[in-house]
Design brief:
- With about 250 residues, this protein is of the alpha/beta class.
- About 45% of the residues lie in helices and about 15% in strands.
- It has a four-stranded parallel β-sheet with strand order 3-2-1-4, sandwiched between helices.
- Strand 1, helix 2 and strand 2 form a beta-alpha-beta unit.
- The protein is globular and about 55 Å long.
- The model has no long low-confidence stretch (mean pLDDT about 95).
């Protein structure tokens, strides 16, 4: 099945939009097919500011309006407790109580998301929640992999074509460690500083009370050369800074 076939059969849908490569291309393709697809961005403490900025920029470039829904996911005690299946509960909450309710009020009965054919359901606990809520994933259903989407996005002129995959900030906190807003802000701040130094596709993970930096192998040498710069910037957020020698 092609995306044109999917949107011919489903001409109206609400899109769970993240501003990432996959949902960006899905929105572009849907609009190209003439479908009425409205993008919704749910802003929680789990998303860094740059993700919303990218989402706003992309929708503006495509000439469509982004609906932003603010929600403090940490008000849910189970999710804040950070159990092993946190992602399942988070997706169930956001899609079930917010996006579905808001989309229904706006006249949309179908919700779609940007899960692609490269995403392994075994690695994505939240996908079980999407299945239970009948959220459709057109990219996955049409067999489009991450590589396919990047090629098509580049051809379409989307700035998101080479954007690194970015998991939510909650993934930086070890399972069982309670998540709070201040901790997420420190992680976001540390990652923003690394971006400003030119590093990409990395993670700053909490290791006990230290920041553990995970970098691609190609950026290890630069990190060692710029050790002083990294310490100066990240010490604003963490007292102890560690470099994981296992390449990300």
């Amino acid at each position: 099945m092609e995306l044109s076939d999917f949107f011919h059969e489903n001409p109206r849908a609400a899109l769970a939009f993240s501003g990432g490569t996959d949902s960006a291309y899905l929105l572009y393709a849907a609009l190209q097919c003439g479908a009425e697809v409205r993008p919704y961005y749910v802003k929680t403490p789990f998303q860094p500011r740059f993700e919303l900025d990218d989402a706003l920029r992309l929708t503006k470039e495509l000439g469509t309006e982004l609906t932003v829904i603010e929600y403090d996911i940490l008000d849910d005690g189970l999710i804040a407790a950070n159990p092993a299946d946190r992602c399942y509960h988070c997706k169930k909450k956001l899609f079930g109580l917010l996006l579905r309710e808001r989309a229904a009020n706006d006249g949309f009965s179908l919700i779609v998301d940007g899960t692609n054919a490269s995403d392994d359901a075994g690695d994505r606990p939240g996908m079980r929640a999407l299945g239970e809520l009948c959220v459709r994933s057109p990219l996955r259903e049409c067999g489009l992999t991450k590589a396919d989407i990047r090629v098509r996005s580049k051809e379409a002129g989307l700035f998101t074509w080479d954007k690194p995959a970015y998991a939510c900030l909650a993934t930086r906190v070890p399972t069982g460690r309670r998540i709070d807003r201040e901790l997420l802000q420190r992680v976001e701040g540390a990652e923003s500083e690394l971006f400003s130094l030119g590093f990409t596709d990395f993670r700053v993970r909490l290791f006990h009370e230290a920041a553990r930096i995970q970098l691609p192998a190609a950026q290890m040498a630069a990190a060692l050369e710029r050790r002083g710069d990294i310490l100066a910037k990240l010490k604003k957020y963490f007292d102890i800074i560690l470099l994981d020698m296992e390449a990300r």
